[in-house]
Specification:
Blueprint lengths: L16 H17 L3 H17 L3 H11 L11 E4 L31 E6 L5 H4 L6 E6 L4 E6 L5 E4 L4 E6 L4 E13 L8 E5 L2 E5 L3 E6 L5 E7 L1 E6 L3 H16 L4 H14 L4 E5 L2 E5 L11 E2 L2 H7 L6 E8 H8 L6 E4 L7 E7 L3 H12 L1 E7 L2 E6 L3
Parallel strand pairs: 2-4, 7-8, 17-20
Antiparallel strand pairs: 1-18, 3-6, 4-5, 5-7, 6-7, 7-10, 8-9, 9-12, 10-11, 11-14, 12-13, 14-15, 16-18, 19-20
Helix pairs in contact: 1-2, 1-3, 5-6
Length: about 400
């Protein structure tokens, strides 16, 4: 007979961080080693159960993938969850109901991810440059494509989806105009030939470093430096551009001392207003077209956050608390679909990852974990809103 004064508490397994991390690693290894469709499905089912047990599990799973350098294994999954807001609200799951009209396109591939390599280095410098000593090249990716461009100086540019660049090389300057999209620049060291990226009236200048530049359709630009230091400043006016061109010509033809005086004059005219910002490895800046670089605030990112920003190189998109509206703005770059978000759900915070090439899976997961339905309101145009059923 039990003592009535004794209360039996239910047994439970303590969810220490170590145990959670161990389970995440075990599931990741299982997914990576699965060698049949049936085993992959079984592992996916177990991962899904693990992620739904506790909101913290998703973060541990992504952390494990990064630690073991197995982000490519995540390409088998599309996992994304809402984060609880300040009121503790978590959208309930709802039944899967998609596109009352013209729903067949949902299961068609939106686009395929291509990775192309352009071997410019096969051309000698003498063949690359024109008679005027200027090399001009233009490269563009379509939606869903990536393009790696190897330059004659051993620098590399990786273009993300829907990106357009123009390259201008002279004997004294390496210049790239980023006209649309996003690119990662790995700059070979050459102190005598500055490497400049022009974007939205601003200039990113480096000698030898690595940085990522992204511009959105709404005018927002992000600069992330992953190695070394870059100089970020407003683009010179036409008069200064002409002087800089003259400086390069003088340096290439005579190397005269007056070139140094001209360079000093240009530097003074550029930076007297303090319109510049030095950005070091691990720092991120975000700016609009009319903002002064000298007034911007820099964010310092930890290594995992930097990896999240550059996950597109592996064909992945990773989110960690961004508002739904911002997530969809990023997604739009990878699809020809026009995706609109109802105002009432724009601020739901999102955490998760999915394949950039698989917009359909993202929309399915949004329905499942957020209770958000997607309705086709016109051909190739959908609206995301809270499911009212």
């Amino acid at each position: 007979m039990k003592d009535k004064n004794i209360v039996e508490f239910p047994t439970y397994v303590a969810k220490t961080d170590e145990l959670i991390q161990e389970r995440a690693c075990h599931l990741l290894i299982k997914l990576d080693s699965a060698d049949s469709e049936e085993s992959i499905r079984e592992v996916k089912k177990n991962i899904e159960k693990f992620l739904e047990e506790d909101g913290r599990h998703l973060g541990f799973f992504i952390k494990a993938a990064k630690f073991w350098d197995k982000l490519e294994a995540l390409s088998e999954l599309a996992v994304i969850f809402p984060l609880k807001n300040k009121r503790g609200f978590m959208p309930k799951k709802s039944h899967f109901q998609w596109f009352p009209k013209r729903s067949g396109w949902l299961y068609m591939p939106v686009f395929s991810v291509l990775f192309l390599v352009v071997a410019l280095q096969l051309m000698s410098d003498s063949g690359f440059f024109s008679d005027k000593g200027i090399a001009e090249q233009r490269y563009e990716t379509k939606i869903g494509e990536q393009l790696s461009v190897q330059l004659p100086d051993s620098s590399e540019v990786i273009l993300n989806t829907n990106t357009l660049i123009e390259i201008f090389y002279t004997q004294g300057e390496r210049r790239i105009d980023l006209l649309r999209g996003e690119a990662l620049f790995n700059v070979a060291k050459a102190a005598e030939r500055p490497f400049r990226v022009n974007v939205q009236g601003k200039v990113v200048e480096a000698v030898g470093t690595e940085f990522n530049v992204m511009q959105r359709e709404d005018g927002v630009m992000k600069l992330l430096v992953t190695e070394g230091i870059v100089d970020f400043y407003s683009s010179p006016d036409p008069a200064l551009r002409a002087d800089m061109a003259d400086m390069n010509v003088d340096a290439n033809s005579t190397g005269a001392l007056e070139t140094i005086d001209l360079a000093a004059s240009i530097q003074g005219r550029l930076f007297n207003s303090g319109d510049r910002l030095l950005v070091a490895a691990g720092e991120l800046i975000e700016t609009g077209p009319d903002q002064n670089p000298g007034e911007l605030q820099k964010q310092t990112l930890a290594t995992p956050a930097i990896e999240d920003q550059l996950a597109w190189r592996n064909g992945m998109l990773i989110f960690d608390g961004e508002p739904l509206q911002e997530v969809i703005e990023e997604v739009r770059r990878y699809t020809s679909l026009q995706i609109e978000v109802d105002e009432s759900i724009q601020n739901i915070e999102v955490q998760g990852y999915f394949r950039a090439a698989d917009i359909s899976s993202l929309l399915v997961v949004m329905e499942r974990h957020f209770g958000i339905s997607a309705t086709e309101i016109a051909p190739d145009r959908i609206l995301l809103e809270m499911n009212r059923n």
